[in-house]
Amino acid sequence: MPEEKVLETENSEKIGETSEKPDITPRMADVSVASEQEISIDKKSEKLEGKYQEILSKVSPSSAATAHSNADVALDVKSIGATADEESKIQKLLDLAQSKGVVYAVKVARDLKDYYALDMMHDALVDKLYEGLLSRGLIQKD
User: Fold this and answer.
1) Residue 127 counted as domain residue
2) What pTM, to 2 d.p., does this model score?
3) Do 98 and 131 belong to one domain?
4) Maximal C-alpha separation, the chain
5) Nearest residue to 77 via CA among 107, 103, 108, 101
6) What is the domain extent for residue 33?
7) Nearest CA to 125 among 139, 104, 111?
8) In a domain, 102, yes or no
9) CA 101, 106, 108, 110: dihedral to nearest 10 degrees?
């Protein structure tokens, strides 16, 4: 009788290979690298927080904290809402932000329920703020 040979298939080889458990115990070098990275991240966040506080200390408090009545907001919503042109709405919202404060202008824009105008006003304000901070030397261009 001929001898029977048992051939291992690829599947049985793969099963054999995966049955071994990998070594997952942390090495001291890995732990020290991880802790150094955490310290580096903490130092960067502290540095950014300090820079942020420095910028805030240089900026004078605005009249944005002044409370405005809901009637004022409703009047501005009505007058701006009557404007058909989107660019005019955005310009009026920017004028409100300059005269009565950003918080007030955002309240008006939200009450308009014109989210396109709100987004465009936000974009314009961010651009102006960035340019203003650059010109005052409070931030540097990257």
Assistant:
1) yes
2) 0.50
3) yes
4) 104
5) 108
6) 27-57
7) 104
8) yes
9) -170
The answer for 14, left when phi > 0, alpha when psi is -120 to 50, beta otherwise, is alpha
Comparing CA positions, the residue from 64, 38, 46 lying closest to residue 129 is 64
Phi, psi (degrees; rounded to nearest 5) at 139: -135, 165
Give the whole-angstrom CA distance, residue 133 versus residue 88.
Answer: 26
Residue 93's pLDDT is 92
Please give the Cα distance from 31 to 20 (Å, whole number).
Answer: 24
How distant is the alpha carbon of residue 52 from its chain centre? 15
Number of residues written out for the chain: 142
- The residue written with tokens 């932000």 in the block is 97
The residue type found at 50 is G
Q: What is the mean pLDDT of the chain?
A: 75
Instruction: Please indicate, yes or no, whether residues 87 and 108 belong to a single structural domain of this protein.
Output: yes
List pLDDT tens digits, range 47-75: 767 776 776 676 555 544 456 778 888 88
84-92 contact pairs (CB < 8 A, 24+)? 86/116, 86/117, 86/120, 89/114, 89/117, 90/117, 90/120, 90/121, 90/124
Kindly give, in sequence order, each residue whose CB lies less than 8 Å from that of residue 110, ignoring residues fewer than 6 positions away: 118
